[in-house]
Amino acid sequence: MAKCAVCGKGAHFGNNVSHSHKKTRRMWKSNIRRVHCKVNGTPKRLYVCASCLKSGKVERA
């Protein structure tokens, strides 16, 4: 669900690294917003990341 409808950006995975260099798995979630957008002239509700909203790739309705 947490995936941008415009650019496809989703969650990223990696490691927490402690001071003793012990590694545990972690996840970075992208900043996804549920917004009303115009798609082919009709308003729709999409999940869009904040960077796509800020850059103007999406026309809000």
Task: Write up what this structure looks like.
This protein is mainly beta and 61 residues long. It is built from one helix and four strands. Strands 1-2 form a two-stranded antiparallel ribbon. It has one domain (12-55). A hairpin with a 2-residue loop joins strand 3 (32-39) and strand 4. It has one helix at residues 50-55, and strands at residues 12-17, 23-28, 32-39, 42-49.
Question: What is this structure, in a nutshell?
Answer:
With 61 residues, the chain is mainly beta.
* Shape category: rod-shaped
Q: What percent strand?
A: over 45%
The main β sheet shows up as: 2 strands, antiparallel
N to C succession of SSEs: EEEEH
User: What is the residue-mean pLDDT, rounded to a whole number?
Assistant: 95
Alpha plus pi helix count: 1
Instruction: Walk across the major sheet and give the strand order.
Output: 1-2
